[in-house]
Design brief:
The chain is an alpha+beta fold. Helix 4 crosses helix 7 and helix 6 packs across helix 7. The longest helix is centred in the N-terminal third of the chain and has 20 residues. The radius of gyration is 18 Å and the shape is globular. The two termini are 33 Å apart.
Length: 235
């Protein structure tokens, strides 16, 4: 998907969904539900536009397991579903180390490979996240998109509000700390002005190797990864 720029045009506006948009949302949620039911024991959530409802045809289906789980248990639960790629990702040298299982070009399962910090879980709440029960009951939740626009679901579609200038209000609506709101505003406005600087770690895991073994090998050569692994008590 092309990079989306931060919007600073309106204070608030209402968006009414077309039948086509409702259909796209239904299809993406059904696809997410099929995978999440396999992962039910790990408390999976779908996050981002599929949780909020403001999907487009090219929107990704992002599923997250919010705590550390042995990767082989996740892969056993997905037995019979082919994977395209398995990756270890770390956005910056001080961010969470995550495993990614890419089911296809639009669907990814993310799970922490080290114990996540509270703010790192808040990142997903910032974008909006819905659990399995919420998905089954057609729940949509507020969250912020990559343009720094707060999406508040309505019966007809959603309300859009700018985040900049109402950070405290946004934190209350999302149930997150003001710190995560300020952090995301700073990161996204900086990215908007200078462009994306790249991901610190994005390494494919061979088919014959576990995520944990691959992470140990990376930690042996990378002091930043090794430090984060040690801080979390090991792999």
């Amino acid at each position: 998907m092309p990079r989306e720029k931060v919007v600073r045009v309106w204070d608030e506006r209402e968006v009414v969904y077309s039948p086509k948009r409702w259909r796209i949302l239904k299809e993406k949620r059904e696809k997410a539900l099929e995978i999440m039911e396999r992962l039910e024991q790990f408390e999976p959530h779908v996050y981002g536009s599929v949780a909020r409802g403001d999907v487009r045809k090219d929107s990704d289906i992002d599923i997250v397991i919010p705590y550390k789980v042995p990767s082989f248990l996740i892969e056993l639960s997905l037995e019979g579903i082919p994977f395209e790629k398995r990756r270890i990702v770390m956005a910056t040298p001080w961010h969470l180390i995550k495993g990614h299982i890419e089911i296809d070009e639009e669907t990814t399962i993310t799970f922490p490979l080290v114990e996540p910090k509270d703010r790192e879980i808040e990142f997903y709440k910032w974008g909006g996240m819905v659990d399995l029960w919420g998905l089954k009951t057609n729940l949509r939740v507020p969250g912020v998109n990559k343009k720094l626009i707060l999406i508040v679901p309505t019966e007809k579609g959603h309300i859009e509000r700018e985040v900049i200038g109402r950070e405290s209000e946004v934190a209350k609506i999302l149930g997150v700390s003001i710190d995560i709101v300020q952090e995301r505003v700073k990161i996204l406005t900086r990215r908007d002005s200078i462009g994306r600087t790249g991901i610190y770690l994005n390494e494919e895991v061979p088919d014959w190797m576990s995520f944990e073994e691959a992470l140990k090998r990376i930690a042996d050569r990378d002091p930043n990864v090794r430090k984060r692994v040690r801080e979390s008590g090991g792999i």
